[in-house]
Amino acid sequence: MNTRIFTWVVFVMTTIIVLGVFVQAYFITAYVTGAGAGALDAHRVIGAMVIPGAELLTFLAAIGAWRSRGTWIGLSFLLLLLGAVQIFLAPMSGEERGNGWVHGLHGLFALVVLVLAAVIMHRAMADLGLKRGRAGVGAGTPPPAP
Ligand code: HEM
What we know:
Oligomer: single chain
Order of helices and strands: HHHH
Largest sheet: none
Number of strands: 0
Bound molecules: protoporphyrin IX containing FE
Structural class: mainly alpha
Radius of gyration: 19 Å
Number of helices: 4
Strand content: under 5%
């Protein structure tokens, strides 16, 4: 399959992760401040299915997109690994509370996931030509000849 298609998949999946972390912060804060069980359910569904699914697809698509660029495949694997650790740092439902200093890392690591996903998204955007590099700025208007 065309590497460009894989790069698009990486771009779309990392965008979902980046937006997802913002949504997750909103839902969990809504829950803690009294929005009710629906907000926690939404956080759980997005956190247990949407975001991990997007992390897995990012890694698989990265293998196709960046065959000869191990660094980006490695970073995509790191995202998958970090994402898994981050989820397991959340307090499990029914678990007795009291390990807050450890579970606090769940929220902190979400920010690391966000930054790493954004870095990979940026790489995919550059490869797809979706962002103008410095060389592209004003490329259509060359300076007048002396
Ligand atoms: C990548 C983003 C995130 C993912 C994938 C994620 C995933 C999850 C999952 C799956 C659970 C449910 C665990 C269970 O009950 O078995 C959970 C719970 C929780 N998450 Fe997140 N989360 C994310 C971001 C955040 C952020 C940014 C915060 C805080 C700022 C946060 C705070 C919490 C809290 C406090 C709970 C426990 C809620 C409770 O049961 O009382 N999460 N998360």
